[in-house]
């Protein structure tokens, strides 16, 4: 594991920071992948994709109802041409626990999310990756 390469993206969405991470899972320990793994090591490794959300402090916080109660659905879109053949993968994230969802007093609250949304190997099945692109639809419900 000599070649270093960060494998993550972060996007700020209104009052939330959404982080998508490719995680290396090995012998029940989870580590953020910051290195390129050699082929011979991949036999004992499982990659997973996770989505983490953090409530961010904002000047609009006074106008919002607290604690935050919206339910999130993450949908990995199967990009099959035939809609009837699509097998999207869904995971739901339901707000539970006051420390994650209360009005932020500091820069951001503790993170929460889906720690094992999909195994990386699953992305290469069906048409989850098409033209080097993956679509994850995120729905926030009242």
Topology:
Blueprint (H helix, E strand, L loop, with lengths): L7 E6 L2 E11 L2 E4 L13 E10 L15 E6 L12 E5 L4 H4 L10 E8 H4 L12 E6 L1
Antiparallel strand pairs: 1-2, 2-3, 2-4, 4-7, 5-6, 5-8
Could you explain the architecture of this structure?
By secondary structure, this protein is mainly beta. It has a single domain (20-141), classed as Apoptosis, Tumor Necrosis Factor Receptor Associated Protein 2, Chain A. The protein has two helices and eight strands. The strands form two sheets. Strands 1, 2, 3, 4 and 7 form a five-stranded antiparallel β-sheet that branches. A three-stranded antiparallel β-sheet has the order 6-5-8, with no helix packed on it. The longest helix has 4 residues, at 98-101. It is elongated, with a radius of gyration of 17 Å. Residues 1-15 and 21-44 have low confidence and may be disordered.
Structural class: mainly beta
Distance between the termini: 44 Å
CATH class category label = Mainly Beta
Strand content of the residues, in percent?
Answer: 35-45%
Q: How many strands in all?
A: 8
């Amino acid at each position: 594991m000599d070649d270093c390469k960060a494998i993550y993206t972060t996007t700020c969405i209104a009052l939330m920071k959404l982080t998508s991470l490719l995680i290396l899972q090995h012998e029940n320990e989870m580590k953020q992948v910051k290195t390129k793994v050699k082929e011979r090591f991949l036999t004992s490794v499982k990659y997973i994709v996770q989505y983490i959300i953090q409530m961010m402090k904002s000047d609009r916080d006074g106008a919002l109802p607290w604690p935050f109660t919206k339910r999130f659905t993450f949908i990995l879109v199967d990009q099959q041409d035939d809609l009837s053949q699509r097998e999207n993968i869904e995971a739901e994230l339901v707000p539970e626990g006051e420390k994650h969802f209360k009005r932020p007093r500091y820069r951001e609250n503790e993170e929460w999310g889906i720690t094992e949304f999909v195994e990386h190997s699953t992305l290469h099945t069906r048409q989850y990756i098409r033209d080097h692109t993956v679509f994850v639809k995120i729905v926030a419900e009242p």
